[in-house]
Amino acid sequence: MELVSLFFVVTTSIFTLSLLNYSLKLVWWRHARLPLPPGTMGWPYIGETFQLYSQNPNTFFSSKVKKYGSIFKTHVLGCPCVMISSPEAAKLVLVSKAHLFKPTFPASKERMIGKQAIFFHEGDYHSKLRRLVLRSFMPDSIKNIVSDIDSIAINSLESWEGRTFITTFQEMKTYTINVALLSIFGKDEVSYRDELKKCYYTVENGYNSLPINLPGTLFHSAMKARKDLAKILATIISLRREMKTDHSDLLGSFMGDAEGLTDDQIADNVIGVIFAARDTTATVLTWILKYLAENPTVLQAVTEEQEAIMRSKEDRGGLIWADTKKMGVTTKVIQETMRVASILSFTFREAVEDVEFKGYLIPKGWKVLPLFRHIHHSPENFTDPHNFDPSRFEVAPKPNTFLPFGSGAHSCPGNELAKLEMLVIIHHLTTKYRWSMMGPQNGIQYGPFALPQNGLPIKISLK
Ligand code: HEM
What we know:
Layout lengths: L1 H32 L15 H5 L3 H12 L2 E6 L2 E6 L2 H10 L4 E3 L3 H7 L9 H15 L1 H4 L3 H15 L5 E2 H18 L7 H15 L10 H26 L6 H6 L7 H32 L1 H17 L8 H4 L3 H14 L7 E3 L3 E3 L2 E3 L4 E4 L1 H5 L38 H18 E5 L6 E3 L3 E3 L4 E6 L1
Parallel strand pairs: 2-8
Antiparallel strand pairs: 1-2, 3-5, 4-12, 5-8, 6-7, 9-12, 10-11
Helix pairs in contact: 8-9, 8-18, 9-13, 10-11, 11-13, 13-16, 14-16, 14-18
The chain binds protoporphyrin IX containing FE.
The site of protoporphyrin IX containing FE (HEM) has 27 residues, from helix 6, helix 9, helix 13 and helix 18.
């Protein structure tokens, strides 16, 4: 009897192994026979990096799409890549088949932000961080900080008064870092803010520099400032532990006892959130000022909407959450700005295994780039795509065609806060100030976000 069972076990195992081997061969054979997407890989190592980064990325994308279709291969930043330019393919990579495409960043960026930050992870650790971040940035939480954001906006704009010219992007960055710090630390630990900002600015300075960690390089100073930042955060965390008080801000959410995050994990994620929140929102705000200055009818409509809100709050003072829900025209201006400016031209994923994708092979390790900018600027998705026309958002865009905050498990958890802080500052800007651009402003810098040339120098005066 025992011999019979042994025979049965052995034959079943042999059969299963052969079947597995056969299936693996079949998968390998199918993949080996699949063609790579069409396209060119450019020069050895540098590939087509220069062609992509030296001009409006749309010129690169459009000429490739015209020649090769909506999926094509190329080689940028030292990596073989597949670029995908249709809304459906973007959904596959970011949502339906997201398990096959992991987020990917250069190792130097990971080191600088901190390896344990949300962007670099998947699975349980990522879901936990996302829950904690969303808990602090959902409408129910951020509606409690509207009046603080209101004060930050008023103070920022007052600091612009009387100056001969303003570099919009720089000033917006000051506004957005202050809002980011408010959302992370609430109104506490104010005495550490200046020191935190000083270290953060040094980190930011070295972020896009060559990753050479030798004394004297920007990268080296940034890595040093990164360590100092972690020390300041460790001090704040231990102070909060001693005080044993509850906080409803992001740091409070990360420090919840049940969450079990280490101090290093908290520090990496606090720094990560500042990175994600600051330049993105400041860049969109810079574009908004440009588009409003260039489109007087739209500016008039926004101003009328905001003046009506200002009149309605005369007896009670500052803005409240309900006011921001009455800003329909302004909201469409923000949406249209994010579409036209498409500050994040694309994002990066990496194939975790050989993937069959729309009849092509994407080899394991290759980068996959959904082209947000191309999708936003395609006439198939938006009529007259190069026209700035906020009224187009009176009708909801077709699915997967409007992705300023990405899509899927890594989509932007800060989008509600970003929209709120933009609405608040536009309210004060349009009701109290006039601004004009200093000279013609047609140039765009792409590094890394698409930004008006020189950060949009403007003149501003009180109404
Ligand atoms: C207008 C401003 C903003 C834009 C356009 C923007 C855009 C994006 C996009 C496209 C992604 C997804 C990237 C990808 O899939 O690879 C993302 C992720 C993220 N954003 Fe934003 N963002 C903005 C503001 C903010 C703010 C204000 C915060 C925080 C307060 C924030 C926090 C994050 C975080 C933590 C992630 C990573 C999420 C994850 O990996 O799960 N962002 N953002």
